[in-house]
Amino acid sequence: MEEQTKSARRRERIKTLLIIFLVILLLLTFFSNTILNYSLPTVSAQYASHGTITEKIRGSGTVSANQNYEVSAEGKRVVASIYIKTGDEVKAGDKLFALDAEDNSEEIKAAESALQEAELAYQKALLTAVPDYAAENQEITNARADLQTAINKLNAAKNKRLAVSDAAYQQAVSDAKAASADIETLTGYLASVTAGELESIPVQYTADLLNKQAAVQTAAKKLETAQADAESKVIVVSSAEQKQTITSLEREAEKAQVAYDRAKADYESAKINGIPEYYQPSSDDAEQDAPAYSLTDMERAVEDAAQTLRYANEDVQNAKTVLESIQTQEQALSDAQEAVRQAQAEQEAAQAAYKTASAGISTMIQADIQNANARADTAQATITAYENQKAEDGGESVDVLQEAVSQQERTLQDLLLKLTKQKQEDDLSQQVGKLELQSQQNAINKQKEELEKLKQAKDTKIITSKNDGIVNAVNCSAGDTVMDGDNLASITLTGSGYTVQISVTAEQARKLHAGMNAEITNQYYSDMTATLASVKQDTEKGASDNKILTFNITGNDVTPGQLLALSIQTSSENYDCVVPSSAIMEDNKGKFVLIIKAKNTPLGNRYYVSRSDVTVIAHDDVNSAVQGDMASSDFVVTTSEKPLTAGMQVRMEEKEK
Fold it and tell me: pTM for the complete prediction?
């Protein structure tokens, strides 16, 4: 009985332990999902969808006036009164400042003293001595005399004894032969010119003559053509004869006109009054049986007279047409005859030029013959001197005298070069002196102007505005001392307009064009408007591709220096796949989104992220339109509390109920 009780207790204990184990296992299984979820990164996600993307370009810039007017002081003065303040609107002629003169008597004295010193220095500079080259010219004259003396001695020595070397003798023999051959050749050339045979004459003589000969041939051909043209224009009947024929035909036409008028008048009268008796046959006619003249006969007579008149007028008109043709032929003949006369004149001129050129060739050849004769005479004289050479007597040698001549030539050349260099240096010094004089004169004139300004700067001067505008800045206070040219105030010209410039990328700039309106986002209750005026390269950023957008700003509330935020809408289009811009990530492989993938498990859904590469084709402030390996119904990650990688398990953020 005890054993049964112990066995029952043991079974009860085992049963209790088993129940406790199962409860613990169930609890661990239940809470494992919760523990795992809280260890996973929490993400927010949103479905991609169809949508509209409205692209905008944003930027900000400072308002600046298109033109400013700077008010400057004239001379050294003290600011007595200021009639404006920053922001005031002024009109042309309004008073801006009152400037009093300082006690400048000391400055006037200093300016007068400086002017006197400048004028004295200028007068001293005018007294600079003019360069004198008398001594150098005398040295050159003496050197020329010494050179001539040395030359005379050398010539006298050469005339007294001609020392001709063997080499000189051989050269003289060669020169004599060459000169003789040249004379013979040139004489043949001269004979060829006389005979008109130019082919054998070198071109150095005949170049011009050949041109003249070609001109003569051209003129002859032109004359021949003109004569043939004139001979072909033969006139059978002259215009004078044709005019006489026309006169005769016109008289016949006049007679026909009279006959027609008479026949028509008789016909018209006969229709009313009957046929006149003189139209009827007389009793003395040979044919007593001739029929009476009827009205029809008179009508036919009128028609015959009209036809005769028409033929006569046609003959006159045809004769006039022939006259015009004859006159045209006569004019053509006159032109052809004039062309013949001109061709004859050109031929005569060409022939005269040919004769002149031919005579010139003869002159050139004769001159060359004379030169050849002179060379032959010189060579022959050397040959004769060599053959008759005698022994040299005493005295200086020719070589020594020749060296003396060379030495004198070098001395003279050195003196000439020295004088030329001295003149160049003096000329440069004179030019520098002229420049210094001009500079001193300019300084004197400037000093006079300064002195005149100091003398005039004794009265109070009122500075007025030259243009309408708004005071942008006042740069002085009452009691300040201002110098000449100091900037007293800056005035923005109201009529010149206002602009704002912002910098954008080249890609953004391609979506814009001049005339587009921009929204001013930081001025809610203002009437200001902004219009894009131009798109230019941003030169301040070196080689960057940025562009500068310039906007014209209009409105009553525009103030220079004001910061404006601008927004420009570039496009608004519908896209198949739109996601929040926060969902787009980027790494070294490009842009991508993380898509939530759900996986069913016995313990519930598990969520994992997968990567999908995309291309952003448009975007606005919130969303982006993308295309890539994804659909418009995909669930994309928008935010995450930790960095994510593809394949990572995540926990979805619980939405507040």
Answer: 0.34
Give yes or no: residues 501 and 647 share one domain. yes
Q: What is the pLDDT of residues 85-119, one digit of tens each?
A: 887 888 888 888 887 766 555 666 777 788 788 88
- What length is written for the chain? 657
Task: Give yes or no: residues 463 and 561 share one domain.
Answer: no
In contact, 584 and 615? CB cutoff 8 Å = no
Kind plus residue range of the DSSP H or E element containing 575: strand 563-580
User: Is there a contact between 194 and 209 (Cβ–Cβ < 8 Å)?
Assistant: no
392 touches 163 (CB < 8 A): yes
Distance CA 51, CA 65 (A): 42
Residues whose CB falls within 8 Å of the CB of residue 251, separated by 6 or more in sequence, listed in order = none
| Residue 258, number of CB atoms within 10 A of its CB | 12
Distance CA 35, CA 31 (A): 6
Q: Distance between CA atoms of 17 and 154, rounded to whole angstroms?
A: 155
- Give per-residue pLDDT as tens, 17-66: 888 888 887 766 665 555 556 668 888 888 888 888 877 788 888 887 77
- Regarding beta strands 89-90 and 585-587, do their DSSP bridges make them parallel or antiparallel, or are they unpaired? unpaired
Q: How far apart are CA 621 and CA 58, in angstroms?
A: 10
| Rounded Cα distance, 137 and 143, in Å | 10
Query: Does residue 361 lie within any of the structural domains?
Result: no
Dihedral of CA 275/278/281/284: which sign? Answer: positive
User: In 219-346, where do the E strands start and end?
Assistant: none
Query: In angstroms, rounded to a whole number, what is the distance separating the alpha carbons of residues 513 and 571?
Result: 12
Residue pointed to by tokens 């939530």: 596
Q: Which of 656, 587, 640, 177 is nearest to 648 (CA)?
A: 640
Q: Which amino acid is at 332?
A: A
Tokens 């006259």: give the residue. 323
- The CATH number for 259's domain is 1.10.287
The pLDDT confidence band at residue 396, using thresholds 50, 70 and 90, is: low
Structural domain range at position 92: 67-104+458-493
CA distance 560 to 294: 115
H/E stretch holding 96: strand 95-101
Ordered alpha helix ranges (H), 457-500: none
User: What count of other Cβ atoms lies within 10 Å of the Cβ of residue 534?
Assistant: 13
Of 274, 294, 292, which is closest to residue 283 (Cα–Cα)? 292
The conformational region for residue 490 under phi > 0 = left, psi -120 to 50 = alpha, else beta, is beta
Separation in Å, CA 256 to CA 266, 306, 535: 15, 8, 90
d(CA 203, CA 83): 95
Ordered alpha helix ranges (H), 233-289 = 239-273
- Per-residue pLDDT tens for 26-39? 766 665 555 556 66
> Does 165 map to a domain?
no
Q: Is residue 288 part of a domain?
A: yes
Instruction: State how many domains the chain has.
Output: 4
Mean pLDDT lowest for which of 120-124, 584-588, 602-606, 626-630?
Answer: 602-606
- Distances in Å between the alpha carbon of 204 and those of 37, 67, 207, 208, 304? 114, 75, 6, 9, 87
Q: Which conformational region is residue 149 in: left (phi greater than 0), alpha (psi within -120 to 50 degrees), or beta?
A: alpha
Same domain, 473 and 573: no
Name the more confident of 310 and 92: 310
The residues that bridge with 462 in the sheet, in sequence order, are 98
Distance separating alpha carbons of residues 315 and 318, to the nearest angstrom: 5
Distance in angstroms (rounded) separating the CA atoms of residues 501 and 66 = 12
CATH of the domain at 616: 2.40.30.170
